[in-house]
Design a protein that fits this description.
The complex is a heterodimer of chains A (282) and B (258).
Chain A: H1 2-41, H2 47-51, H3 65-96, H4 100-113, H5 117-132, H6 137-161, H7 165-173, H8 178-189, H9 191-206, H10 210-213, H11 233-242, H12 246-279
Chain B: E1 11-20, E2 23-33, E3 38-42, H1 49-55, E4 66-74, E5 77-78, H2 86-90, E6 93-96, H3 108-117, H4 124-137, H5 141-144, H6 157-169, E7 175-179, H7 187-200, E8 205-209, H8 213-219, E9 222-227, E10 230-236, H9 237-242, H10 247-253
Parallel strand pairs in B: 3-8, 3-9, 6-7, 7-8
Antiparallel strand pairs in B: 1-2, 1-4, 4-5, 9-10
Helix pairs in contact in B: 3-4, 3-6, 4-6
Amino acid sequence: MNTRRVRRRLVNGIMTGLVGVLSALAVLALVLILGNLVVKGASSLDWNFFTKNPVPAGESGGGVANAIVGTGIIVGLACLIGLPIGIGAGLYLAEFGSGRLGWVVRFVADVMNGTPSIVVGIFAWTWLVKPMGHFSALAGSVSLAILMIPMLARTTEEMVRLVPHSLREAALALGYPRWRTSLRIVARTALAGIITGCLVGIARIAGETAPLLFTALGNLNFSTHVLEPMQALSLQIFQYATGPFDDWHRLAWAAAIVLMGLVLLLALSARWAIRQRHGASR
Amino acid sequence: MAPPADARLQLEAVRLTALYGRRAVVKDVSILFPARTVTAVIGPSGCGKSTFLRCLNRMHELSEGGWVTGTVLLDGDDIYAAIVDPVQLRRRIGLVFQRPTPFPTMSIYDNVAAGLRVNGRRSRADVDAAVEAALKRAALWDEVKDRLKQSALALSGGQQQRLCIARALAPEPEVLLLDEPTASLDPAGTQRIEELCHELKTNYTIVIVTHNLQQAARVSDYTAFFYVGDLVEVGRTEVLFTTPTQERTEAYITGRFG
């Protein structure tokens, strides 16, 4: 009796400790990455870094303003293309996707989810860059959107499926047409989850490098023209980090901080938005 | 036979059979729900009561594999006729479920207004008046009038159920179907909803599915006893409970099974 109780306590203690250590390890990895970034890059983060464009190699100073704006434009455009399609496909899968077409769409989405991003980049190069005759931000956005759509479709589907069936029936019993039930009741109830899904999707594509190498290419100058090559933070990091100059390496670290900061900001603002929506109902 | 004088609000099932795939769960049921009465549908669990109720506003056909034969007449018109739009029809026959189903993203006000808004544009004042009237009829107005903009989830279970009744009443249906509306409520909440049935039957025709025999006896004018998909017996409540004609009915209401 007594030994059993002691054994239970012992096992409980060991397991709790083990789980604690493992989660600490998980957090440790993140802390190490962030710490490393800050140590190596924080000193290069100044006003010039955000407002100036790159200067020729060898000269000191200069910043990555063009890359920050470029990432904003490329990712923004990718969202414009990818969010409606991805969310729409997810809604379709959850609400009407029980048939053969649903099965096909789901299968394609799963396969696309596992496709290496570099393959998507080559695809965009073949079908957009080559026919157009030049690299462009638009092609970059399209390749990022392609990466985003299957992920969005599947998360949206999962989130919509979590909405209780009884809610759907309540709306239908009130005389809601099916499409209106899907949009006004089901999708709205799942909105917090869908937004979180979008966020994870945006965060993932914001840091993508491989597809942009084939499409947006990069640009040493400030450009907002979506049909021209454009710089992006991930490309800038890649170019600076693989370059031979110490100055470039420092700038690459700093750019990495900015990229992570952007993703973090995105996450926080979306969480805030969700809380606002749920706190003060209309 | 000439139609009765008050054909409006009257609901009638004619040889109604409800199936899931090839399995019939309601078998060849014919029953009349007279206008401005409360009819209780009783019977053991899984005997097709809820399915039957869902056939009355064409919700059953939305279930996986659900379909019906026979028909249902509302005001003498076939609701399963090809020209009838089931979406429009459901606005005339309201349904309240066993568990409260407030729309979680909407305020109390918007929940009640939901059925009105889907019915086409109305003026703000119109909706305001209809929401207030519906909440008053559902005996919820006094408890929520100062917090109409709050989330519907802030209400208690009983209040949520009355909110759902108000939501069903707001578009002014002709018939109200209640599927065990008090199953998840405490005695006080149950009593309020039963009182509500009494008040509402001056304007509506009500069909209430219940597990609770006392409740059936308290609220209804007519009682229908279902057993494994069959309508065994239907009659005036006081008659059915005191002198049932069928042995199975008697066995059920005296508690020998079910």
